[in-house]
Amino acid sequence: MASVFSGRAGRLAGIWAADQAQNNYNQQQGTLAEGRDNSLSAIDSGRTSSLAALGQGYGAAVPEYQAAIERFNPWTEAGKSALTTYQNSLGQNGAEGNAAAVAQFQASPGYQYQLDQATDAVARKASALGALGSGNTMQAITDRASNLANQEYGGWQDRLNGLSNTGLQASGQQANIQQGLGNLYAQQGRDQSNVYSDAAGKEAGIHTGYANANAGALGNLGQTIIGAGTGALMAGQTAAQNRLNFGMNLGKTAVSLLAAPMTGGLSLMGLGGGLGGNLGTTPGAGGLY
Questions:
Q1: At CB < 8 A and 24+ separation, what contacts does 47-50 make?
Q2: Number of domains in the chain
Q3: Is residue 57 situated within a structural domain?
């Protein structure tokens, strides 16, 4: 059993408390680290899954946009060709371009059919009059062809312009779809950024929480160790005070015994003298011989 004068029990209790606090802190550190790592792993997994889902969704949408754009290609190509021919017919591309436009006009099936019908009508009429080979007949055929060309050329240009406008409208639709595709890519970028931002915020929160919990645990450990050390110190001081008090009380007792009056007192000297006298002078008192 530990003595009240040593303080050993208090010191041992303080050491035990400090050891227990350190063990608890170590266990808390392991638990906190495991929780942090599990949370970070879950966030990373969620981020990967979210990005994969976004990529899959946008990846499926992009071909649809591209296919829609391609569906307008026949009209845009026809409109582009019609615009070139229309510009040639107006002489915007020089004499060579204008000649190419006239040749295209004259080679068109509708014009050739109408020309054949008109000249045949003039020839039949001249034949009926017996003047098929006359100069007047040939001039009439030439005039009819020229008038027909003048009439039809403007209509042909109008049709070219209409086809060009159709191509323009088709290209406008393609531009709208392409803009939608661009918006799709932009939205994909924003969605991906949101995923990264959200994950980063959660990771920062976890690290902050871990740091705060770690700081709290470390503070508790410090307070516990300080308390244990203070308790051990107090135990030592109490033991020292006990020894001091005991020594002082013992000294006081000795002084009291030595300083008592000789008469009627129970001092050590009086007690010894009385006993010696009685033993030496009293017959038959059992004295020492």
A1: 47/195, 47/196, 47/199, 50/195
A2: 1
A3: no
Contact residues for 91 (Cβ-Cβ < 8 A; gap 6+): 97, 98
CA distance linking residue 50 with residue 121, whole number of Å: 78
Q: Has residue 219 been placed in a domain?
A: no
Contact 184, 65 (CB under 8 A): yes
Cα separation, 209 vs 202, whole angstroms: 10
Provide the token pair at 281.
Answer: 């002078």
C-alpha separations of 250 from 67, 246, 262 in Å: 110, 6, 22
Per the structure, the complete domain to which residue 176 belongs is given by 68-201
- Determine the residue type at 112: Q
Residue with tokens 């915020």: 201
pLDDT digits (tens, 9 = 90+) for 228-268: 666 666 666 666 666 667 677 777 776 676 666 544 444 44
pLDDT by residue (tens digit) across 56-70? Answer: 888 888 999 999 999
Is residue 141 situated within a structural domain?
Answer: yes
Write out residues in the chain with pLDDT < 50, as ranges.
1, 4, 129, 131-133, 262-289
Closest to 92 measured CA to CA, from 169, 148, 159, 161? 161
What is the C-alpha separation between 43 and 205, in angstroms, rounded? Answer: 11
The span from the first CA to the last CA of the chain, in angstroms, equals 48
d(CA 269, CA 281): 18
Residue 38 lies in a domain: no
Q: Is the dihedral of CA 26, 29, 30, 31 positive or negative?
A: positive
Tokens representing 87? Answer: 């510009």
